[in-house]
Automatic annotation (TrEMBL):
GO terms for molecular function: ATP binding. Residues 4-220 form the Diphthamide synthase domain. Keywords: ATP-binding, Nucleotide-binding. The keyword Nucleotide-binding applies. This is ATP-binding protein. It holds the Pfam family Diphthami_syn_2. SUPFAM superfamilies: Adenine nucleotide alpha hydrolases-like. Transmembrane segments: none annotated. It comes from the Bacteria. It comes from Halobacillus litoralis.
Length: 223
């Protein structure tokens, strides 16, 4: 009998590929997605994608999405309390494993695993160790359509948000930048691909900045 899992969902290309890998694996049964958003802005932290677009993504994927709100600039203690409540809800539904799309950052995985262990849960990392170049190539090969939503302006030009994540974008990256943005260089939003029942039509709005210009974003709206 397949094991029930839930997927941590950022709305980006890596989350989409991780989701596809567990859906394709007969060992697992995906019960849904969950995202954490800022209690104040109702946006995904750093990515700055609005909650309503995450909900629409889940709709066209045909999966339920649980939104968890976290206070802005929450301490680790507050964050862990929020996550404990969420994990308990999963366990009540006999879900004991969470799927994450991390590629290689050991400190982030260690933080996740420690928090999961405290809550008698465990993590699944279907993209771990594959390598960023392979993951990027697979995203393109499987024809996921994604747009760059956010860049770290210390690493990429502030005008990049709104650019498509495609071969042209990958070729434009300098060799010191990760092609999946795993070091925080950029973030994406997926609006079509093999798992989508229909494309999510989005249009680009104005660019805006956060953290005194450190991050540049593009406002996405559904057409």
């Amino acid at each position: 009998m397949p094991e029930k899992v839930i997927v941590s969902w950022s709305g980006g290309k890596d989350s989409a590929l991780a989701l596809q890998k567990v859906i394709d694996d007969e060992k697992y049964e995906v019960e849904g997605l969950f995202s954490t958003v800022s209690e104040q802005s109702l946006r995904l932290p750093v990515h700055e994608v609005r909650e309503n677009l995450l909900i629409r993504q889940a709709d066209v994927l045909g999966l339920p999405l649980e939104i968890v709100t976290v206070p802005e600039n929450a301490s680790n203690q507050v964050y862990e309390k929020v996550m404990k409540r969420m994990f308990q809800g999963f366990k009540d539904r006999k879900i004991h494993k969470v799927v994450y799309a991390d590629l290689f950052l050991e400190d982030i995985r260690a933080f996740r695993d420690e928090l999961l262990k405290k809550n008698e849960m465990a993590g699944i990392y279907p993209l771990w160790g594959l390598g960023s170049h392979k993951v990027a190539a697979e995203v393109i090969e499987k024809r996921y359509q994604a747009v760059i939503t956010t860049v770290d302006t210390q690493k990429l030009d502030k005008r990049v948000p709104g650019t498509l994540y495609d071969q042209e974008f990958l070729h434009s990256l300098s060799p010191d930048l990760d092609p999946c943005g795993e070091n925080g260089e950029f973030h994406t939003f997926v609006h079509d691909g093999p798992l989508f029942h229909s494309p999510l039509k989005v249009q680009k709005g104005e660019r805006f900045e956060t953290l005194s210009g450190r991050f540049s974003h593009v406002e996405l709206n559904e057409k």
